[in-house]
Amino acid sequence: MPRLPPSLIWKAHSISPLAATLLPVCRNIASALAELRWIREHVQSTSRSPSGSQADDVRLRRLCRERGKGVPLQYVLGTQPFGDLEIKCRPGVLIPRPEPEAYTTHLSRLLVSGHFIPRHQPLRVLDFCTGTGCIALLLYSSLCSSSPRLAVTGVDISPLAVSLSKANLKHNVALGLVPSPSPSQSVTFRQSDIFSPHWSSPVSAGGHCDVIISNPPYISPRGFATDCSRSVRNYEPKLAQVPRPRPDSGVAQEDVFYARLLDIGAAVKPRVMLFEVGGMEQAVRVVAMVGRKLGTEEWEVEVWRDWPDARPAEEEGTTVLVDGVGEVLVRGSGHGRSVLVYRM
Amino acid sequence: MLRAVGLAVPFQRAVSNVSLRRAPAAAFSTSPAAPLKQMPPRPKPPPEEDIEEYFIHGSGPGGQKINKTASAVQLKHIPTGIVVKSQATRSREQNRKIARELLAAKLDILANGDQSRTAIVGSVKKKRADSAAKKARRKYRKLEEERARTEDSAGVDRRDDSAAGDQSP
């Protein structure tokens, strides 16, 4: 990372000493001022003392110092907006990103419009590696009005993630952002290791499943060392980003979750599957894996970019050629971000 | 809970006493309430087909590898080429809404000029601020004149004034 020019630090300092505190992590004055504004708003809105008190001032300075050291803003403030929801964030659980927000919103619109499954049919959704529960909760809240019988289950290996996702359900119900679960519409979270030999699908007991969605760990150890930003490497859980090696899986370390998820998909036979990937190269590998494991006679495949509902830029292709599968449709604009697998 | 009730009751009594005492003097006003001027409605954003939307997250691999806090949204109105940007909040959805409102306001100004909502709201606000400033000027001029008059007539001792000034913080 290039060194900050002293003139920039002085300039930030002359606007506000706290902006200068945030500068090492924000890198430019505009975003330092934006973050300072958000931290100040947070301190004011959660303050228990009269406004402008010294306790608030001390807290504001402490939070700015923490953020300046590189602690993610979402851990400092304790939340991150995700769609219309407010997701609580705690160290040990990956922070929700804008890309999952975009593809989850896009998928939920397609589901609400009855694109894959006729409207008002009972709907069962599985979200693997749910983390904060953000994807499960956003799908649940946006599908409630169109699916009178809806069951969403979030699964994660980390007990920290499961307890946080349950807290997030409570938090968003209390804020009135998510409808309260009922016997016919539910969202639940459970701790489970999908690689365990004793693992059984949450729908194995005579049930069916319509949608599988997952934002699994997909970064190689080398990618983690070279591509991940410092704040991500130092403060966010590696468990959520780099899969453990599984030599018997026959695929690269960063792809092991897709192999497992497609095996689960082949057994459970959902109508729709959507998996986040780390870029177009990985998307192509996952599409090829779909061709090998599921075949393309029954299943259709698409690749979605970061913003699947945006117009593609001129240099962005709208198809990609995959060995053994052929031409695959690419939607939206940005990096290759997710792979959609569905059957009509 | 008990303490809150205990506090609330005397407070309510005190308030009702005051209002009882003052009620006959100022309960009714004979002058008609000034009619509230109806502002033009907020302009509607243009149809989505006319908008090109960009999300500015900087360069880099994105996804899990980076954690950007800003979720700036930039809109371009294709027929007019007007560009607006919003990074007011941390929420992408909120910024999308705010950017659309900004764009609607800009298009309203372009189409309606002086008769646009922004111009009318602005002129009403300016009128209000001007009238407040005028009232303030009048008040302080009057105070100034009064003080001058009392000083002239009573011949105030200057030393008293300065002593009082020292005591005040």
From TrEMBL, chain A:
The keyword Nucleotide-binding does not apply. One of its GO terms (cellular component) is mitochondrion. Keywords: Methyltransferase, S-adenosyl-L-methionine, Transferase. It catalyses: L-glutaminyl-[peptide chain release factor] + S-adenosyl-L-methionine = N(5)-methyl-L-glutaminyl-[peptide chain release factor] + S-adenosyl-L-homocysteine + H(+). One of its GO terms (biological process) is methylation. PANTHER family: HEMK METHYLTRANSFERASE, MTRF1L RELEASE FACTOR GLUTAMINE METHYLTRANSFERASE. NCBIfam families: hemK_fam. This is peptide chain release factor N(5)-glutamine methyltransferase.
UniProtKB/TrEMBL annotation, chain B:
Pfam families: RF-1. Keywords: Mitochondrion, Transit peptide. Its main location: mitochondrion. InterPro entries: Mito_Transl_Release_Factor, Pep_chain_release_fac_I, Pep_chain_release_fac_I_sf. Coiled coil: none annotated. Residues 29-49, 123-169 are annotated as: Disordered. One of its GO terms (cellular component) is mitochondrion. Residues 47-147 form the Prokaryotic-type class I peptide chain release factors domain. SUPFAM superfamilies: Release factor. This is Prokaryotic-type class I peptide chain release factors domain-containing protein. GO terms for molecular function: translation release factor activity. GO terms for biological process: mitochondrial translation. It is found in: Mitochondrion. Residues 142-162 have a biased composition (Basic and acidic residues). The keyword Mitochondrion applies.
